[in-house]
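Duplicate of earlier report; Peptide chain release factor 1-like, mitochondrial input re-posted below.
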Amino acid sequence: MVFGLARSSLRCLGFARSLARWRKPKSTRRLFCSQPGLQDLFALPALQRFLDQQQEEEQRQEAGARRGGSALAALARRLRRKEEELGDTERLAREDENEDLRKLAETEIVFCQEEIAELKRQIMLHLIPSEETDESDLIMEVTSGVGGQEAMLFTAEMFDMYQQYAAYKNWNFDILEYAPSDIGGLRYASAAIAGHEAYRQMKFEGGVHRVQRVPKTEKQGRIHTSTMTVAILPQPNEINLTINPKELRIETKRASGAGGQHVNTTDSAVRILHIPTGVVSECQQERSQIKNKAKAIQILRAKLYNMKLEDESRKRETARKIQTGTKGRSEKIRTYNFPQDRVTDHRISRSVHHIEQFMLGEELLDEMIQALGEYADFEAVMEVISESDLTRLR
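Output:
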């Protein structure tokens, strides 16, 4: 597995953090480390073998069908030439007795280093595979797990945190379903989130989140462990997914629960069954049956699209890295430990303090999400290199 490969290197997290430079810079992002991580990554023999292989393939193509080589091979070739130029210039700066020439060489060294860094960044962008869902909007579902009322209270806090994070990122946040508990918690809720790179940044939030604290309902001061689950579903467009209306069974019923006069008086709630798959979506959030139907369709499309993507992933033999699981206490991606004022993401072994500030859904949460994305980019690069090595050895 790629996670095992990444964790086997003591320096891998430093490499992952350096991937922040390979994406377009954002003013809101705090970079975790600087250029040395990128230099170390290019020093890996596996990456050097991969780039050599790309250039060899390009040479074979030119000698055979005379077709143009790949952009990656061209970048690798430019990088090698620029590194050779840098070596020659550094020797000139060390050995030439003419002071003016040495100063000129030192200036040229700086320009060469900048060009090399840019070429390496471009190579990394070519190595990181893009996903068709990265530019998608998304449906987020939150569900209380183990822990009774305390789990529901934590679910409500998490839903609020993501709503505030959407505002922090200038994304649209539209509540689709909201099922509160009796004491102010949340049994289940879903929301549509739309904005620049919303799914690419939120996709790693899917999974089981665990909280450890003394619940408000606890009389003896004991620390309890509870869980809730987040599911992140990419929102398809009309090209990605088409639903045959004849395959839908649409039912209407009276809304239930809190909601004012319209509850239990009009058939505003909508339930949609996709007959071939058995997937169901419901919505009673709005007073209007038409609006509820539109939202239920939106949820259904996201669920069906997610099923399609998972099926494609299985066919490619790439396991889904984040699963909802059984919502048990042991299956967790992140722990929120209130007595120790600490949030720990177990996938990248990263902890941050100031948990109340983290739950505001602003800079601390954003830094955690960026770190997860950078680590995933690192793994993607390592997977490309590993697959190339395996192919070469066959």
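The longest helix spans residues 363-393.

Merging into the original ticket.
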